[in-house]
Design a protein that fits this description.
By secondary structure, the protein is an alpha+beta fold. Helices cover 13% and strands 23% of the residues. It contains 1 helix and 5 strands, in the order ββαβββ. The strands form 2 sheets. A 3-stranded antiparallel β-sheet has the order 3-4-5, with no helix packed on it. Strands 1-2 form a two-stranded antiparallel sheet. A hairpin with a 2-residue loop joins strand 4 and strand 5. The chain is globular, with a radius of gyration of 16 Å.
């Protein structure tokens, strides 16, 4: 398990806490970590660097799925958040062999016709 800027010895009532998903099934080489909370881009970048350091750059595929929330004050690129039917922003980052693939869903950026 990787922990950046935190302690997993005790649970605190902060907005960003780790909880092991229940129930879970042991799947061999597959590891799933789930966090809920508000994370800055710097914390996510630190996590990606730690994954690369721990697992190496080409040995394993790594993926991060992330999702925003409908009442977030900002959207992508620090744009003002507006939503009418769907305010969730999300995406997937896939890493392998020194390549980075990113798929983003930007539902809530302000777009007037």
């Amino acid at each position: 398990m990787i922990c950046i800027d935190g302690s997993l010895n005790k649970q605190l009532d902060f907005i960003s806490t780790y909880v092991t998903p229940e129930p879970y099934i042991y799947l061999g080489q597959v590891k799933i970590l789930r966090w809920t909370g508000f994370f800055s881009g710097r914390v996510v970048a630190d996590f990606l660097l730690e994954l690369e350091r721990y697992y190496g750059s080409s040995k394993f595929w790594k993926a991060i799925y992330f999702q925003g929330f409908s009442d977030s004050p900002v959207a992508w690129g620090l744009n003002e958040h507006h939503y009418y039917t769907n305010g969730d922003n999300g995406g997937v980052i896939i890493l392998n062999d020194n390549n980075l693939y990113m798929c983003l869903q930007k539902c809530s950026n302000k777009r007037y016709k």
